[in-house]
Design a protein that fits this description.
Structural class: alpha/beta
Order of helices and strands: HHHEHEHEEHEEEEEHEEHHEEHHEH
Number of helices: 12
Number of domains: 2
Strand content: 5-15%
Helix content: 25-40%
Distance between the termini: 20 Å
Radius of gyration: 20 Å
CATH superfamily of the largest domain: Type I PLP-dependent aspartate aminotransferase-like (Major domain)
Bound molecules: pyridoxal-5'-phosphate
């Protein structure tokens, strides 16, 4: 059986009529940027997460760039993030001229709080944990360290919509949290979109200006901003998706449960979940010592998988200038060399999940 890593069409089909109705509403409104659809979605999403303000932007990448900029961070400043972060998390720092400082991940793929304090210097201006794969970093310990040093936290929630830790949702632990709505995400748009959330009225105001050429009022640029506004069409479609976010999370958790119970191959290390944290399984990441053989074995059986991510940020060519080398972050490098992401998405049929399990269990 052919099993694709993801089939976006199936997610659309789940709520086709409502998506089509929302798209037509946006098209027929005659108002396509910064209108009622965005205003409603910003309110709905921020209240779903438990934050006061939402500022819709063009992508998760832009949300991260603006979050760092809104905190006044730039050249000469340091921002701490994870050594296994996605490149966009790090670009959010370096696009502002600041320097990323990496902390290794723990066994849940999140920022290791044990290693955080040692990375703090007088230049540290923010801590940027990345809730990778859909599992929240250990926020009570990370926040305690950040608060002790008076350093703001920016959460990268691009993979973690709707997860919670001790009853609080991802995106509600920090000064500014950043989400991506890239189509594959737990809440996905039909194009690029992202959002910043904050409880601080001044940061809300500043982020709104930064996304709109630095203006509060059209043609009056008070600060140097950019143009990154979530459009009305994406906002209208995301309002539909938001209604089903918890239902779709349960579908992914059901698939994950099947993988966790069904995969018994001793060559595979399954993902673990902290007791106080819900995993929303944007990515079901397994580890395997014989990764390349596993991937080609699965491909022969028709099963398509992914790798998140094959090159850790410190070894990415764009960061040669940081002077970091192979061996500097062995945990992140181990994950980069051994992780395999299995297909998991709302709309994936159980027979395909069973086919993945059978294929993996027959790998030797
Ligand atoms: C952890 C993480 N951060 C940031 C981003 C960037 O989001 P976008 O693709 O919307 O720019 C992504 C998207 O893949 C991501 O996974």
């Amino acid at each position: 059986m052919d099993v694709k890593f993801t089939v976006l069409q199936r997610g659309f089909e789940l709520h086709k009529d409502e998506y089509e109705e929302a798209a037509l509403r946006a098209l027929r409104s005659g108002w396509y940027v910064l209108g009622n659809e965005l205003e409603s979605f910003e309110k709905e999403f921020s209240s779903y997460i438990g934050m006061n303000y939402g500022i819709g932007v063009n992508s998760g990448q832009d949300a991260l760039i603006l979050a760092v900029r809104a905190l006044g961070i730039g050249a000469g400043d340091e921002v701490i993030t994870q050594s296994n972060a996605y490149i966009a998390s790090v670009l959010g720092i370096t696009e502002n001229g600041a320097t990323p400082v990496f902390v290794e991940p723990d066994k849940y793929f999140g920022m290791d709080p044990e290693k955080l304090e040692a990375a703090i210097t007088p230049k540290t201006k923010a801590i940027l944990p990345v809730h990778l794969y859909g599992h929240i970093c250990d926020m009570s310990r990370i926040k305690a360290i950040a608060d002790k040093h008076g350093i703001p936290v920016i959460e990268d929630c691009a993979q973690c919509h709707g997860s919670n830790q001790n009853g609080k949702k991802a995106g509600s632990f920090s000064t500014i949290s950043c989400f991506s709505f890239y189509p594959t995400k737990p809440l996905g748009a039909f194009g690029d979109a992202g959002i910043c959330l904050t409880n601080d009225p001044e940061l809300n105001e500043k982020l709104r200006m930064l996304r709109f050429y630095g203006s509060r009022k059209k043609y009056v640029s008070e600060i140097t901003g950019i143009n990154t506004r979530m459009d009305e069409m994406q906002a209208a479609l995301l309002s539909v998706g938001l209604k089903y976010i918890d239902e779709e999370k349960k579908i992914r958790q059901h698939i994950a449960e099947k993988y966790l119970k069904g995969i018994t191959n001793p060559l595979i290390k399954l993902p673990e979940t902290r007791e106080d944290t819900e995993h929303v399984y944007h990515i079901f990441g397994i580890l395997c010592e014989k990764r390349d053989e596993l991937i080609s074995f699965l491909a022969d059986k028709g099963v398509q998988v992914g790798i998140h991510y094959p090159i850790p940020p410190h070894l990415s060519p764009c960061y040669d200038y940081l002077g970091l080398n192979k061996g500097d972050f062995p945990v992140a490098e181990y994950y980069a060399d051994h992780e395999v992401s299995l297909p998991i998405y709302a709309g994936m049929p159980d027979e395909e999940v069973d086919a993945v399990i059978e294929a993996i269990n027959s790998f030797e």
